[in-house]
Amino acid sequence: MPAPIRYQLEPQLICGEFVDVLQRSTLAERRPLDEPGAIAGMVANADVLLVARTASGLAVGLSRGITDYSYCTYLSDLAVDVAYQRQGIGRELIRRTHEAAGLHTMLILLAAPKAQSYYPHVGMRQHPSCWIADRTPHPSGA
């Protein structure tokens, strides 16, 4: 039986720990890890930053949400260390993020290509319309 995982809101999460979890998940390849200013802003400006930790304190999963606490919540990052996947950590991070933002909000996310089959498994439904304007590098540089 896997060791218990504890979940907590961590609005002051250290950027290095955030990056470390991204690197141990499949999400790092889709995030601007070479732009420290962007990473710092992603952490500092999150409305809901939830971390899953082992008993020893190792961060093995995280979710980062942007919300108005009234109508919608954008789950912008869901990352679980590949060594800890398939233990329900992602599902619990989603549930707790939605709960922290308010279950009366609509939870929205863009699935990473490698994770598209995961979200129906945890009870989310696919929306047929999403539009993206690509980003340019963060103004603070690398």
Q: How many discrete domains? A: 1
Q: Which runs of at least 5 residues are low in confidence (pLDDT < 50)?
A: none
Q: In which order are the strands of the major sheet placed?
A: 1-2-3-4-5
Mean pLDDT score: 91
Question: What's this entry about, in short?
Answer:
25% of the residues lie in helices and 22% in strands. By secondary structure, the chain is of the alpha+beta class.
What layout of secondary structure does this protein have?
Layout: E1 6-9, H1 15-24, H2 36-44, E2 48-53, E3 59-67, E4 72-80, H3 89-101, E5 106-108, H4 118-121
Parallel strand pairs: 4-5
Antiparallel strand pairs: 1-2, 2-3, 3-4
General description of the model:
The protein has a 5-stranded mixed beta sheet with strand order 1-2-3-4-5. The chain has a single domain (6-121), classed as 3-Layer(aba) Sandwich (Aminopeptidase), CATH 3.40.630.30. The protein has helices at 15-24, 36-44, 89-101, 118-121; strands at 6-9, 48-53, 59-67, 72-80, 106-108. Strand 3 and strand 4 (72-80) form a beta hairpin. The longest helix is centred in the last third of the chain and has 13 residues, at 89-101. With 142 residues, the protein is of the alpha+beta class.
Task: Quickly list its features.
single chain; 142 residues; alpha+beta; Aminopeptidase; five-stranded mixed beta sheet; 4 helices; 5 strands
